[in-house]
Amino acid sequence: MCIATANIPTEMPAQLTQAEAKSRRDAASTVIHTWEKLHETLSKMSDTAWIFRGVSSPDHYPIPSIGREMLYGRYKLAQEKRLFEEFKHRAVSLVRGAEFDDWNWLAYAQHIGVPTRLLDWTTSPLVAAFFALQANAETDRAIFCVKYSRFIYEVDRAGQSPFDCKTEGRFTPPLVFDRIRAQRGLFTTHPDPTKIFYRNGMRVIRIPNALVQKFRKQLFKYGVDFWHIYPDPEGLGQQLRWNYRERIGLGQIFTDKFRLRNRGER
Predict the structure, then answer these.
(1) pTM
(2) Sorting pLDDT into bands at 50, 70 and 90, what band is 8?
């Protein structure tokens, strides 16, 4: 059994129905109408004990990907373990010079998109805002915020398999992964991955869809963009595609005034 490194509550939260999760989410939600209001709301979380998770819709509840039965069908532990073993068998050639235990392998699997029992979080609210705003979707966006020092304890990984851990907890992955390091990432682990994750005191920041484009530009101004989040060739490509599409950050040649002055050029 996996024991956390701090006192664990004697009673874990009961599994929420979708209706209960929606009710609590709505009660905990703050709708943001300006960039200044977003900054004000985040400033009220005055210490460093908060973690954040940005999603492209308020209806994307915090459920680990392996447990999303509407997407993958009925969850079975044996199938999760089999998928994990297959991942390790294939991925060993991708990571050289690093000695991984199963926790680190699981972090790597989550990192590259394999369905796991982990949820991604970040200690940076601006990084969470980037992930909330990244997708092109006609929905409001949401940032889940939880005070981890009070409600999510660090798991003791020594000699323990993540599949033996019976309590929800958090852990920080190895910083050999550039993206995780850039994203200030950490994970929570969930023994029942079909369960909607909720903690008392959780807050939800809701960003109306009408503000998505404006907020993306604000994040770019603060240096939180594709190449910051994904510091690799793929991230650079994504960044320049966004710059070109939005006509931002590529010089005056893309301004309306310049185009009008030089409209005779081909």
Answers:
(1) 0.86
(2) very low
